[in-house]
Amino acid sequence: MSEPKERFRVLLRMRIRPGMESDFEKTWLRVGDAVTADPANRGQWLMASQDEPGVYYIVSDWTDEAGFRTFERSAEHVEHRKRLHPYRIDGSMVTSRIVYHLEPAHAGEDT
Predict the structure, then answer these.
(1) Three-state SS sequence of 45-95
(2) Which of 5, 8, 53, 57 places its Cα 20 to 30 Å from the Cα of 43?
(3) Which is it for the CA torsion 93, 94, 96, 102, positive or negative?
């Protein structure tokens, strides 16, 4: 167990219009560099819900909340949102601070 360096995590939940899931995924991948190019970003993941058809989760890690909020107000983020907005029915956002990180017992294997 370790206390991680300051890290801020954002979890987005998006419900996508039926039949547009594949186009949403492709567009998210194409415009993802708008997020990952930001110096405060530490990576992002797109996940499709196994339980709710058409629901996606996006997780992104940031150096800190201030870095995320600066990006959130940037022209790059506004453009990123414009390109994804036509696919969305609705969405929500939760932010958090990582308190602890547990490494897998089988360190060295891909997790």
Answers:
(1) EEEECCCCCCEEEEEEEECCHHHHHHHHCCHHHHHHHHHHHHHEEEEEEEE
(2) 53
(3) negative
pLDDT score at 63: 94
- 8-97 fold: Alpha-Beta Plaits (3.30.70)
CA distance 44 to 42: 7
Model pTM? 0.84
Q: What is the pLDDT of residue 110?
A: 60
CA–CA separation, 94 and 78 (whole Å): 19
Q: How far apart are CA 89 and CA 18, in angstroms?
A: 9
Higher-confidence residue: 70 or 76? 70
Residue boundaries of the structural domains of the chain? 8-97
Q: Residues 6 or more apart from 33 whose CB is under 8 A from it? A: none
